[in-house]
Amino acid sequence: MVTFGILSSVFDFITFTVLIFFLRANEHTFRTGWFIESILSASMVVLIIRSKYAFYKSKPGNYLIIAIIASAIFTVLVPYTSLGKIFGFVKLPFEFLIILLSILIVYLALAEITKRIFYKYVNY
Question: Quick check: pTM over 0.85?
């Protein structure tokens, strides 16, 4: 897990850098963007690390799929609700969502590659 923890931390810093320096996020857009990216990445990386096989070759259980889909929908929608206002979330510009989705896709792809390398050297 040290390997995947380091990868996760690298992408945390990438997300921070993109939000602050490239997208010029203010306090509220940073908080909202970080909330969305961190919850989605944490829930979706489970699909990668739960098995030593490629994520698309190892079908997850129905309850896991339901939980991930429900948490993803909740995560993306909550900034647009009154609950989101309580936490200081704001509606993100479409550009932010596309860039955060791109970071997420690259992170998941590298997590899959890292897993393959990991299992190449570790017999578990």
Answer: yes
